[in-house]
Amino acid sequence: MEIKNDRTCILSSTCFAAAATVDENGLPFSDAVELLDWDENGIYFIADRTTEFYRRLSQKGVISVTGTDGGSAGSRTVFTLRGSASELGTPFLPRLLKKSPCLEQSYPSQISRKVLTVFCISRGTGEISRSGKTEPFSFGADQEKKPRYFITDRCVLCRFCYSKCPQKCIDISHRPAVIRQESCMHCGNCYEICLARAIEKRPAE
Ligand code: SF4
Ligand code: SF4
Fold this sequence. Notes:
single chain, Pnp Oxidase, Chain A, Alpha-Beta Plaits, 2 domains, 8-stranded antiparallel beta sheet, two-stranded antiparallel sheet, 5 helices, binds iron/sulfur cluster
């Protein structure tokens, strides 16, 4: 399995992840999910219809997932995504179950599998971190193009932008400061804080 958009490969194998959902009172809960497959329509996982996880997911239709590829420290990939999840039912179930020995063991018979259903996260946004770098990504209808930010010669090196940058991806060792684009999340904090109006916002290509 490989989940990626134009810049970012998010997953290269089936993985266990922590999934957060909210109940009718807005209280958050965490559960374990196994992300089993991906295609152009979204990311697929299986839920048990007798669980509170299923109930919360069905009611709200939103999910936040945090996972890792299980790699060793230094090369480990960690991602988090937020998206809309919708129930697809059982058509994909046999194919997905084959990818999960754990679920096959937990639900060994056809009768026990009657409670299982497939969900698809069809659109979402998130961040992926590896080798010390964090990149945003999006997929489905949320695959929007975000603007890019560039620092111009008007920079007076006040360093305000650096103090507000969540990625600390602005090189302030010389003037003008420089945004390391490969780590920028395009949040716009630097653009907002720059009193010298030295930062340009350019539409994504
Ligand atoms: S806030 Fe503006 S002027 Fe200050 S260092 Fe950043 S880009 Fe330069
Ligand atoms: S857009 Fe956000 S992440 Fe990118 S350099 Fe500016 S403050 Fe940092």
